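ok so i was messing around last nite and threw this chain in just to see what happens. nothing serious, just curious
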Amino acid sequence: MTALSAQDWLEKIRALPMRQKVRIMNVCGGHERTTSLSGLRAALPANVELIPGPGCPVCICPEEDIYEAIQLALREDVTLAAFGDMLRVPVNAAKGEIRSLEQARAAGADIRPVASPTEAVQIACENPQRTVVFFAAGFETTMAPVAAMLAQGTPDNLFLLLSGRLTWPAVAMLLASGTPGFDALIAPGHVSTIMGTEEWRFVVDKHHIPTAIAGFTAETLLAAIYSTLRQLSEGECFLDNCYPEVVSSEGNSGAQKYLAETLQVTDAMWRGIGIIPASGFALKEHLQEKDARQRFSPHCGATRKRIGEMPPGCDCAKVVLGKIYPNQCQLYGRACTPRAPIGPCMVSDEGACRIWWASGVRAEAETV
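result:
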């Protein structure tokens, strides 16, 4: 069977008898990037609204975790490894103080950007006399290789500052609020590759909201959009896997095994949002000796103000939750740009603000 092109899917979408306004949320930052850079919003019928959701791990990483990483790098005799996107995320600090890992690195701290856990292991192996702290932030897709690293054994001089999160609890929180702001959901293909399709069944069974899992091309995204719109038009609701090439119902059993062996699920803070129950990863008890928070004295005291919050005037939390579009933030394109970001959504390639800026949206919205 010949795969449908993007144009084919658009024609199928336009043929649906949909007249009412429909709001579809995509959970994944990769989906938002494809949507924005491919111009899908302009190509879809005017009554179909695509909303970026909580799919950027950099954007929701707690401010206090980033602050702790900065202070460890500055005050302790360590090498700190972190994913590249984390280096430019600003924390709440007074003018003139160091506000990011990038600035800490410029001030002399030994901070190394890495793209994978294996690079952190390599740094530790190449510097056996040096204490190395791996600041590991991310969703299930990132935590799986971190878990594999732990299960397979790490150098004695490597410790973890863990800031891992699960994706689905944020969606569950929005749905439980009673005002989720969306009528259908596009679930993330990369997370579903690890965890399986069934992780998203609660959206359909409990909340009766059409859900489709998509990959990262315009074709698979449009297939998922068509699926959810057809479900709404026909008055039915089911979980549709539009990324069967790599996503299965059971997911990656090996990755899940590593996660279960090394990490436990805990309540966790999401930046600007608050604590979401059962949404975070922490090291299991037998790995506590690898926890940088246990190895070093805390550098993030309760006396700090605005802990966990976004900087003043920043609406990144509303963007993450799909409450506003990026250019509805009062700082977007004014005080906050990729060159000089104020909020985390303008830093990462997964952040909606950065994606919108990269796709050419320069003006703030006419109405907020």
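not much to say yet. The mean pLDDT is 93.
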